[in-house]
Amino acid sequence: MSNTEKFRGVFPALYACYDKKGDVDLDAVRALTEYLIEKGVNGVYVGGSSGECIYQSVDERKRVLEAVMEASKGRLTVIAHVACNSTRDSMALAAHAESVGADAIAAIPPIYFRLPERAIAKYWNDISSAAPNTDFIIYNIPQLAGVALTLPLLGEMLKNPRVIGVKNSSMPVQDIQMFKDLGTKDGRDFVVFNGPDEQIISGLIMGADGGIGGTYGAMPELIVKLFALYREGRLEQARQLQYDVDNIIYALCAAKCNMYASIKEVMRRRVGLDIGGVRPPLYEYSSEDNEAVEKALALINAAVKRWIG
Question: Which of 15, 139, 230, 285 is catalytic?
Fold first, then answer.
């Protein structure tokens, strides 16, 4: 088994879990982790966009990761997203992730200020230095971070032996090919995760090793099935299931509330897992979103019946 084998497959991006007061709910974090394990996923991505990381404190993010590690008990590969606006806080989260045994850390580039690539590389390498025994994954999400991973920047980061992959959430699937080609140059073992859930099959065909997705938690069995169909070479069926998944995503995004709020309501209704709402300024679920949520639920149930039985 290669060093990166554990980073292949289905990785739901873990949702932020809150109690009725809006505080982090660690019991819900553990319950969500157990639920995803039961659904057969390969790993989880903790503290990213789905985890509402930019709205949580450093201490909250540490406690969430600790709860995931406690619940997973080695049954999942755990990737901890540790980026904050300051290098100091990011390094603190990286060191903590290594101390609790996370399999890898990940980071978006610094946001708000437009920094030159040499500053971004230093930021990432400084974070990596705080967890010197832990693999590092670059998170490319230009539509939110405001800066895109370029091949020269990736080439610079590959000088760091701990850099073993990219989570690519840019829309062009060509980026997956380009990052994979450069990352595997000279026989290096390098993984690329597909980020956009609407194009999982396209990403896999272009060379992605797995997927990290923000909608996976709403329908984990469908995503697991999608990966299985691809691996079995049943591409026409995989394409049909991808279309079903996309229609579910469109329904989830049709609500006026934030997408994660609608996903959490779907999970509460579908499997009885209550992980709270979203943290302001994200827009909370309300009764005006019932139609979109009910449509998403119906689509998920129909797809599960069709593909899982």
Answer: 139
Among residues 239, 238, 218, the alpha carbon closest in space to that of 297 is found at 218
Tell me, yes or no, whether 57 and 190 share the same domain: yes
Q: Tell me the C-alpha distance between 212 and 206, whole Å.
A: 16
Residues 83 and 196 in one domain: yes
CB 216 within 8 A of CB 12: yes
The strand pair at 163-168 and 191-194 is best described as parallel
Which ranges of 73-218 would DSSP assign to H, the alpha helix?
87-100, 117-129, 142-145, 151-157, 174-183, 200-205
Domain-embedded: residue 160: yes
Q: Which of 62, 167, 180, 225 is catalytic?
A: 167
> Residue 169: is its pLDDT beyond 70?
yes
Q: Are residues 91 and 187 in the same domain?
A: yes
In the residue annotation, 139 being an active-site residue is answered as yes
Number of domains comprising the chain: 2
Task: Please state the φ and ψ torsions of residue 139, each to the nearest 5 degrees.
Answer: -105, 110
Known catalytic residue at 185: no
Residues 279 and 158 both lie in one domain: no
- Tens digits of residue pLDDT in 231-288: 999 999 999 999 999 999 999 999 999 999 999 999 999 999 999 999 999 999 999 9
Longest dimension (CA), the chain: 55
194 plus 284 within the same structural domain: no
Residue 152 φ/ψ, nearest 5 degrees: -60, -40
* pLDDT of the residue at 2: 47
Do 260 and 189 have their domain in common? Answer: no
Q: Is residue 195 part of a domain?
A: yes
Q: List CB contacts of 85: < 8 A, sequence separation 6 or more.
A: 54, 110, 111, 112
Q: What residues make up the domain containing 150?
A: 5-214
